[in-house]
Amino acid sequence: MASESSLFEDADKDFLTCSICKEIFNHPKQLKCMHNFCQDCLDPLLQKGKPSKIKCPLCREEVELELETGTLVKKARERNIKTPCQKHPNNHLEYFCQTCQVPVCLGCTVVDHVRQSGHNLLNLQDHSTRDEFKEKITEQITKMEKLMPSFEKNIKIADDTERNLIESLERTKKDIQETAKGLIEEIKTHANSLIEKVNEKAEAIQKKVEHHREAAEIRVMSATSLNRFATNLCKHGLNAEIMSSAKDLLRRMSELQQEMKDLAESGELRFIKEKEFKLGKVEECMIQVEY
Predict the structure, then answer these.
(1) What span, in angstroms and rounded, lies between the C-alpha atoms of 211 and 104?
(2) How many CA atoms does the CB half-sphere of 85 hold within 13 Å?
(3) Which of 10, 105, 116, 194 is disulfide-compatible with 91, CB 3.0–4.6 A?
(4) For the chain, what are the domain ranges?
(5) Is residue 121 a contact partner of residue 113, using CB atoms and an 8 Å limit?
């Protein structure tokens, strides 16, 4: 049977290396999750507001920080068979308190780990007990090794899903851009069509405006000329001229008045305020693309 010291002689370099700094352990500390790190590497990881808690850099489990030297790693570094008790430095660890799950010295069994108080103590030099623990650990190692392919498969699933997500994202963004281009072109075409219709409508109204203006201008000129003639006739005409011209003059003046009235009431033009003048109405439009 291999001696206890040979266990540490055979330990490979990774067993003695901190996974954070990648150097040989310096003041090694063991978390409750059984992962070991240098004390200086753990200090920056202390959570703000939770000075006694830390997230393990390997398993991400939040554990209570116990700044006690990892005895197994310390023994491996120092190549010592016996390990001093941290609470009683003059004593070596001789027992394992199965109740508290910690190695203890003889002094500890008298003060804190008393058999009579229900603490189950095992002798660290009892090879059969050690082998029993090793067997249990080995069984768990085998179970973990069987589970590893499942974990690796899930890692692959996560990687494939992430890759597919990224590819789908890029495709969707590209589709959105292409759809947007098509919608923009469609909107531009529709807008140009509406503008053309508005221009046609405005042109038709403009022609009516010009016709109305021309008709009004002609009648204004006629009325001005007729008024001038009538005024001169009344001032300078002879009685015979006034009487002989009165019938035609009154008829023409009456006709012009009626024409001006008809023009104003013809309905060809609708005189409204500038701000109220609208050729059409643009309704609110919402474009929605669903995937």
Answers:
(1) 116
(2) 17
(3) 105
(4) 1-81, 82-125, 161-266
(5) yes
What residues does 121 pair with on adjacent strands? 97
Is the pLDDT score of 240 beyond 90?
no
| Distance separating alpha carbons of residues 197 and 87, to the nearest angstrom | 96
- Give the CATH architecture of domain 82-125: 2-Layer Sandwich (3.30)
**pTM surpassing 0.85?**
no
Question: Measured at the alpha carbon of residue 56, what is the angle toward residues 51 and 60, in degrees to the nearest 5?
Answer: 115
> 1-81, which class in CATH?
alpha beta
Segment 204-219, tens digit of pLDDT: 888 888 888 888 888 8
Q: For 47-51, 60-64, 192-196, which range has the lowest pLDDT when averaged over its residues?
A: 47-51
Find the range with the poorest average confidence among 74-83, 91-100, 140-149, 224-233.
Answer: 74-83
Is the pLDDT at 90 greater than 50? The verdict is yes
Sign of the four-CA dihedral 153, 156, 161, 162:
positive
Bridge partners of 30, per DSSP, are 36
Which stretches within the chain are classed as H helix?
4-9, 39-42, 71-78, 106-111, 127-236, 239-264
Confidence label for 112 from pLDDT (cuts 50, 70 and 90): confident
The gap from C-alpha 130 to its chain's centroid, in whole angstroms, comes to 54
